[in-house]
Design a protein that fits this description.
Distance between the termini: 56 Å
Structural class: alpha/beta
Protein name: Calcineurin-like phosphoesterase domain-containing protein
Number of domains: 2
Organism: Actinoplanes friuliensis DSM 7358
Helix content: 25-40%
Domain Calcineurin-like phosphoesterase: 68-273
Shape: globular
Transmembrane segments: 16-39, 344-367, 379-400, 412-435, 447-473
Strand order of the largest sheet: 1-9-10-11-12-14-13-16-15
CATH class of the largest domain: Alpha Beta
Number of strands: 22
GO molecular function, one term: hydrolase activity
Low-confidence stretches: none
CATH architecture of the largest domain: 4-Layer Sandwich
Number of helices: 18
């Protein structure tokens, strides 16, 4: 089907190392950090209705609901997940799992930057194609969305326009109900869902706290809570202890006084699946909705939450949580690192071109300096000094050095400088080769034309391979690990959650993985109005990442007594 028939334009995966994208995203992030506190739309949302919501499920109190996060990237990955979410039921490892009556989107609904066209082509369009109309044989499923950092890059304008403040709003067959970027939902059997909007992890605003204080009035000691957060702060707090402070404050001040038990924390943001479990609750990261895969082999095997290093004097009692499951596996995650050499040049042509231009200009500056008479003139040629400083500054910034007060911050600087010297060494080697070629003696502008047409592409490939080697080595020191995987843009190994509250109050979580997404689709325009417009031409086989997880309820109590 053509874009005119679909009503949107399917998008390629984001090239995360594209120079203009890196610059644009960096500037948007800086502006959001600098001005976010002054232009915080969460404060303005106080004027919007402050309703909490109810999802009672079926007549006997049963409810199926789904969770997906980090979607809205390339069409094939996003639609593969959307297609599975939209089917009336899935048969997964011999179990039949009905479609969720509620779909929870956990953050980063669009990449790389939030705007109307991005949401239309990367999120709304694919999900509308997966479930064009409400199901003919049942109630219309509901959709709630929590913003992540990418949703915030335009100040939440496009997010609110799509997911909130719209009468009779819908995305395909899913209807939207929320009015704000955060929400509370009463579920069956004394279960409640609270989804908080942290806005880059800074704090939770007063109107939001008032909203949840009102929603929490319904809670009591017999109630249990699922808490959705935009980011898995329990993992990130292992390196930055203050990252968990806002969530801990919310639990201590809003939920704990009611006596209700927070039994599950769920988040996306890290594009993989991981589950930590402890004596009181489970902590699940499930960011496999469509964006590039992120490593799992570097996850801490155990977490202490809240971290004992936190400066919050009234923090909750620290508890230990053990990593019990991850997808992909450690072995698969380590194996995928080696794809950096083949995938980075292909998926990031613009970045390779930029490296080729920098290397070519540096070689010409070196060649020009070497042609001058005195030694000092050779060493301090202005064009050469500019290029050398540019390379070193770029590689150090690429290594993303944190503040001097951060633990182990020096390794970022050291690796960045070493990478810079390696790129300079490559330029020096290229200059030596250039001096042994006949082109440099041609009449001007012959050498420049040859350098651009012949030397540039070759040195661009070599510089990209050197960058790939740096990413592989730096990841061993936990530096630029995200870039190692983002540069590859791995679309496979996707995941989402299908959860079930049974009439007796047992919450069961089915963590569903997809090893290989589909890249070939066939149109199905003659089916029922609620059927997916595009069907997979390649096998699209979901599986359970781990056995069903019983979070709480009579079934959990029974299983705890087993030998």
């Amino acid at each position: 089907m053509e874009p005119e028939q679909l009503g949107f334009t399917p998008q390629r995966p984001v090239g995360w190392l594209a120079p203009l994208l890196l610059l644009n995203t960096g500037l948007r992030t800086l502006m959001a950090i600098l001005f976010g506190a002054y232009l915080d739309k969460r404060e303005l949302q106080n004027a919007l209705p402050g309703d909490a919501f109810t999802q009672p499920g079926t007549a006997d109190g049963e409810l199926w609901f789904d969770y997906v996060a980090d979607l809205g990237d390339g069409f094939h990955a996003t639609y593969s997940v959307a297609y599975l979410l939209a089917q009336p039921q899935l048969e997964v490892d011999g179990q039949v799992l009905p479609r969720g009556q509620v779909l929870l989107m956990g953050g980063d609904q669009v990449y790389p930057l939030a705007n109307g066209d991005g949401y239309e082509n990367r999120t709304k369009g694919p999900y509308r194609a997966a479930l064009p109309e409400p199901p003919a044989d049942g109630p219309q499923p509901t959709l709630f969305a929590l913003p992540g950092n990418h949703d915030w890059y335009d100040g939440l304008t496009a997010f609110l326009r799509l997911f909130a403040r719209r009468k009779d709003g819908h995305i395909g067959g899913w209807r939207t109900q929320q009015y704000r970027s955060y929400f509370a939902v009463e579920l069956p059997a004394n279960w409640h869902l609270f989804a908080i909007d942290e806005q880059f992890g800074a704090y939770i605003d007063d109107p939001q706290l008032l909203y949840f204080e009102e929603a929490a009035r319904k809670l009591g000691p017999d109630d249990r809570v699922i808490l959705m957060t935009p980011s898995p702060v329990w993992v990130k707090a292992a390196k930055e202890p203050d990252r968990y402070d806002a969530v801990d404050y919310f639990i201590r001040t809003i939920l704990a006084p009611t006596g209700a038990q927070v039994r599950l924390l769920v988040s996306g943001d890290l594009h993989h699946y991981a589950r930590y479990t402890g004596e009181d609750r489970d902590l699940i990261t499930c960011g496999g909705g469509g964006a590039y895969l992120v490593a799992t082999h570097n996850l801490p095997e155990q977490l202490t939450v809240p971290p004992k290093e936190t400066l919050t004097r009234s923090a909750s009692r620290s508890r230990d949580y053990k990593l019990v499951s991850r997808f992909p596996s450690v072995e698969e995650s380590k194996r995928l690192r080696w794809g950096v050499f083949s995938k980075v040049p292909i998926r990031n042509a613009g970045f390779a071109t930029m490296l080729g231009i920098i290397q070519t200009l540096t070689m010409l500056a070196m060649a020009g300096a070497a042609s001058q008479g005195g030694t000092l003139q050779r060493l301090f040629s202005i064009p050469l000094v500019i290029m050398l400083l540019l390379i070193l500054a770029g590689t150090v910034l690429f290594a993303q050095p944190p503040g001097a007060d951060a633990a182990k911050h020096s390794r970022h600087w050291i690796l960045g400088v070493l990478h810079g010297f390696a790129q300079i060494g490559l330029a020096a080697a290229g200059t030596w080769v250039w001096f042994h070629l006949p082109f440099r003696n041609w009449e001007w502008p012959g050498p420049l034309i040859v350098a651009a047409i012949l030397y540039g592409p070759v040195i661009a490939y070599l510089a990209t391979q050197l960058l790939s080697l740096y990413l592989l080595i730096a990841s061993l020191f936990d530096v630029n690990t995200n870039e190692l995987f983002a540069g590859q843009g791995i679309e496979d190994a996707k995941s989402f959650l299908r959860m079930h509250i049974s009439p007796d109050g047992t919450l069961t979580v089915h963590a569903i993985g997809i090893d290989k997404i589909c890249h070939k689709w066939v149109a199905d325009p003659d089916n029922t109005p609620d059927s997916s417009w595009l069907l997979p031409q390649e096998p699209l086989t979901p599986h359970l990442i781990e056995p069903p997880i019983i979070i709480d309820g009579p079934a959990a109590a029974d299983s705890s007594q087993l030998p």
